[in-house]
Amino acid sequence: MARADLDKQPTDVRRMFDTVAKRYDLTNDLMTAGIQRTWRRAMVDAVAPQRGDLVLDLAAGTGCSSEPFGTHGAVAVPCDFSVGMLQQGKKDRPSLPFVAGDGTRLPFLDDTFDAVTISYGLRNFVDPVAGLKEMLRVTRPGGRLVVCEFSTPTNGALRTIYLDGFMQALPRIASLTASASDAYVYLAESIRAWPDQEGLAAMVAEAGWQRPEWRNLTGGIVALHRATA
């Protein structure tokens, strides 16, 4: 597999995720020392799902992020453009209604969902603002957006350790479980190139969402951005 570059060509990015699908969840747990589970719970809390809500979980991969919504009585629709991820998700979580779809051309009608969420996927879009506009299109008036994404640590020392230390080591860590460690070189570079918290909030507002705000997790390594349709 040729490593996808930062132009984020959809075919390359899709192939990359197809390649790492089988051990993707395990690798993420290893890379974050399990902290990603705390981030996932915080993401669900930020969505604040109610019984009967219909939630679109975009870039859902194998559905790991979609599964918790069911415990709140909501129905989560995991959507991803990687067929490999969807196939693995259907094996691991057969009860979830997986849907194949491109985040910039979603296969859903206007005003369909009570909430839309995307975890660690927006930075892989060729045009993130176009993706955010499409999320707004399929969200009912008054519905919620939650973006969970790697961000910029607020502490200078932590930022140096994270960006210059952990990001350099990430492909080696991933190689312990993933056969395509070059994919994690791309992931590390995409994280380093991604806007900070304020920059992402500006993109959310540009797409038409109202009252964007954010909450830092783990010192800003990850940030939750919320907004309203």
Task: Walk me through the structure.
- This protein is an alpha/beta fold and 229 residues long.
- Helices cover 41% and strands 21% of the residues.
- The chain contains 8 helices and 7 strands, in the order H-H-H-E-E-H-E-E-H-E-H-H-H-E-E.
- Strands 3-2-1-4-5-7-6 form a 7-stranded mixed sheet, sandwiched between helices.
- Helix 6 runs antiparallel to helix 7.
Number of strands: 7
Work out the radius of gyration. Answer: 16 Å
Main sheet attributes: strand count, strand direction, barrel closure: 7 strands, mixed
Helix content: 40-55%
Question: What's the overall geometry?
Answer: globular
SS field, number of helical segments: 8
Side-by-side strand order of the widest sheet: 3-2-1-4-5-7-6
Would you identify the regions where 5 or more consecutive residues have pLDDT less than 50? 1-6
Beta percentage is 15-25%
Kindly summarize this structure in a few lines.
The chain has 229 residues and is of the alpha/beta class.
Please write out the topology:
Blueprint: H1 10-20, H2 24-31, H3 35-47, E1 54-58, E2 75-80, H4 83-92, E3 99-100, E4 113-119, H5 128-137, E5 139-150, H6 156-174, H7 181-193, H8 197-206, E6 210-217, E7 222-228
Parallel strand pairs: 1-2, 1-4, 2-3, 4-5
Antiparallel strand pairs: 5-7, 6-7
Helix pairs in contact: 6-7
